[in-house]
Task: structure prediction
Amino acid sequence: MPQTLGKQQSGLALPPSRPQIPKAPTGIQGLDEITGGGLPKGRPTLVCGSAGCGKTLLAMEFLVRGAIEFDEPGVFMAFEETAKDLTQNVASLGFDLDSLIAEKKMVLDFVYIERSEIEETGEYDLEGLFIRLGQSIDAIGAKRVVLDTIESLFAGLPNPLILRAELRRLFRWLKEKGVTAIITGERGENSLTRQGLEEYVSDCVIVLDHRVRDQASSRRLRVVKYRGSTHGTNEYPFLIDEDGISVLPVTSLGLQHDVTTDRIPSGIARLDTMLGGKGFFRGSSVLISGTAGTGKSSISAHFVDAACRRGERALYFAFEESPSQIMRNMRSIGIDLEPWVDQGLLRFQSTRPAFAGLEMQLTMIHKATVNFNPQVVIVDPLNGFIIGDNATEVKSMLTRLADFLKTKKISSMFTQLLSSGVTQGTDDMAVSSMIDTWLVLRDIEVGGERNRGLYIIKSRGMAHSNQVRECLLTDRGVELREVYVGAGGVLTGSARLAQEAQELASKLTRKQEIDRRQIELESKRRALDAQIAALRAEFEVREAEAMKIIAQEQAQAAQLLQERVEMGLSRSADL
Amino acid sequence: MTTLLAKPEEAYLLRLYVAGQSPKCITAFVNLKKICEEHLAEKYQIEVIDLLENPKLAGGDQILAIPTLVRRLPEPVRKIIGDLSNTERVLVGLDLKRRK
Result:
């Protein structure tokens, strides 16, 4: 069971006890987060921007999602495009307007205004518009209304004074009807809208922007005003793709992530040992820096492989190589990623960063992550994002990305290419402060060849090894070996092999020497033993001889004594 | 007496869209009758459509402003908005007078 530490705050940290104005959720990814729940319910919202910004699309998506996801039918009153054009245009996003209209969830009303056909002859008002709109609203019980675009009214009707007065009346009327309305308008030079509509529609104003910088286009959205609610006031990038609009919200304004003490393996056993024995923290971010060809992507591949083996999903953002190239390259070191792709556990997303602006990239990453919901994310490499001198923007973008991934408790691994000749510790993107674990792959050049060494610069929250390990790419994957520290310093590669061979040889020689001496000793001992044996044998012979002579002498002495006694006895017989 | 472009050959079919009995609508109707009697002799037909009673008819002729006079015949269809107090403009709009 993972332990979670720390308290969690989500979104924009609104104090929960205060009442909020009611909001109509838009269903557009990211927009509801920025606005704190959606657009103001029952009130008009102004969406302005220049041509091609996406105003009509935003309004249409608001209506369609309202009808499908929130059961709020809507009326789209179009002054610019015909109903048929609109239906066709949004069909590519998967919005089937015809069926919605048939189900009475939507009304699409095209109002035709042709200035040249109209002759103004006195006082009038726009009651006809009211009647038409009222009719449509009542026909399906609509709760949402879109007027796209107000500029056409100003272009078509000759008297702006009457028009303005009627628009004021219209917005009041919409409020009374209780419908949540979006009105679209063109961006003005000095004012938010060309016609100065923000004077009348002042409950909520959203501005869309579309600019091109360094040949890459980026779209931004900004909530300029939102009466009665706190809202994110920054510019948020958004993108328009086959699912509609996706806005990238900044999710964590404070550093209030939950953390766990779970550890996950890196996929390389020796590396786990270097990391306090257990691997990375789940939900932490890892940076692998290294010069070209040092094995950064290979380490990432191991990490992904290990994750997929555990049944977890991994999302691999490849900014330099195509997915098939990566898989082919990894197969050569014994890692086969294809089965994971087939099982749906691994997904590659591959684009060149220069292809879209920085915010677009971030939004795409965000969207892909939200859709796929992985536990592991790889970004390989980070360098592609630096174009020109946008280093500060890159840092801000990476901070947001790292924050977002942490909040979702996704473990992330980033690779960074260092230019050769750069020593460790140099961080041209200043990203290391956001990273929990930093591995560096360094070239060790000695004796005419280049080998790789890996070491850990930092790993927050755990004891880690400070030893440099030699990093080898074998056909069994990445292997880490002890680095040889010999008399000449650190040795790797063939110098190390040479040194190892030499040591082996001298060890062998020493052993032989020892054996030889032992044999010598043994033979000396034997010789000595033999000598001793010979001496002893001689001694025994002498001893036997001597004993014999002694015995003889003793016998002779005894005999003499005997004879004397007998002689004495025989002599004493004369008495 | 204003000079006419030509005597109308075919009958004029005119539709006046109003919303209830507001002062503008009444003024428009009165003005319309006057202009028709003066310039169109017998060859005209006026239909008054009250959008408050028949709101669905607003879409057909694309009516936004009230009151609106639509000249259905002769073709092409012309729209004249306002209470018709500017007779000159009405005549230009109905193609009974050349635009200055």
Observations:
- The helical segments of chain B are 23-39, 57-60, 87-93.
- Confidence is low (pLDDT under 50) at residues 1-8 of chain B.
